[in-house]
Amino acid sequence: MKVLTMKITAAISLVAVIAVCLSCQSNSSGRKERIAVVISTLNNPWFVVLGQAAVDRCKELGYEATLFDSQNNPSKEAEHFDNILASGYRAILFNPTDADGSAVNAKAAARADVPVFCMDREINVPGACVTQILSDNYSGCISLGQYFVESMGRKGNYVEILGLVGDNNTWARSRGFHSVVDCYENLKMLAQQNADFDQNKAMEVMESMMQAHRDIDAVFCGNDAMAMGAYQAILAAGKASKIKVFGFDGADDCVNGIREGKIEATGMQFPKTMAITAASLADKYIKGERNLPKKLPVAVELVNKKNVSNYGHFGRIDN
Question: Measured between alpha carbons, how far is 268 from 252 in angstroms, rounded to an integer?
Fold first, then answer.
């Protein structure tokens, strides 16, 4: 009887082991590994391209990819991270809402051993992200500032519409622009106000600026969505031929605006390049590579009426 009990126990144990092994095999050959793509807002075509390009590259590499929209809301972003970290994602491609506030989420992912790769926007805590792939906003706006000076004939009055005050890109662009323009004493800034990178807010801000200052010759906007909003306000006020509009991003609306003579110039960022790079680095990390760069700058190119035929679809047009 004792021998029979031992045989039965051994048989049950063997069945349990086989079941566990089959379960493991099912998991490993079943659902693909997942990568999360967290974007600050999808209420802007440029960020839609950034997010979708990241998703597409992840799928090409054999992963499932989920796109999360933070709606420019740090609380919504935190909810996304809580969900992602509880759901077994292997990596996060991250476009933060705030350079300081978003660091909390990236650090939580690091503690959970989920690597984070920042795209376009950076966070200010070293080590929270594996790699940050960022446009060279400062240098890009130096080039834009130089063209601004040339276009204005080194004199005139202008206003500036800033993006999100908590985003490092806002200030890198503004500082790059002013590092050039402030050297010309006959170029005077009449007002500076933020519009959170939002087209509708920029339209309202531009309307207020034109009411307060009747002698505006140009407006420099921290992104193309705001440039298009500013242009709408200028057009409605009947001043489209008097006020020059400068943007930054390389969005199709703005590039087409340059072709049509509505916009003076913009800085072409390359969202597809940043997204593809982030996904490719995440793939390398998941496969065991750890010798990855902490920061990767992506050059920005000036787009104006002289070279606009070379650009479109959020990048260069291949000839």
Answer: 10
**Is residue 37 within a helix (H) or strand (E), and if so which, with residue range?**
strand 34-39
Confidence at 227, pLDDT banded by 50, 70, 90: very high
CA 22 from chain centre, in angstroms, equals: 42
End-to-end CA distance of the chain: 85
Q: What contacts 274, CB < 8 A, 6 or more positions away?
A: 50, 119, 120, 133, 134, 135, 298
Say which residue the tokens 């077994």 belong to: 88
Q: How far apart are CA 136 and CA 269, in angstroms?
A: 9
Rounded to the nearest integer, the mean pLDDT of the chain is 91
Amino acid in position 193: Q
pLDDT digits 0-9 by tens, 250-305? 999 999 999 999 999 999 999 999 999 999 999 999 999 999 999 999 999 999 99
**Amino acid, res. 238:** G
* Residue bearing tokens 């943007």: 247
Q: What percent of the chain has pLDDT over 70?
A: 90
- What is the distance between the alpha carbons of residues 95 and 18, in angstroms, rounded to a whole number? 44
- Tell me the C-alpha distance between 290 and 310, whole Å: 37
The whole-model pTM stands at 0.86
**Token couple for 278:** 């982030």
CA distance 51 to 42: 8
Q: Which of 191, 126, 127, 122 is nearest to 162 (CA)?
A: 191
Residues 44/46/51/54 CA torsion (nearest 10 deg):
180
**Does the structure show a pLDDT above 50 at 111?**
yes
Phi, psi of 243 (to 5 degrees): -115, 120
Q: Is the pLDDT of residue 22 over 50?
A: no
Q: What's the residue count for the chain?
A: 319
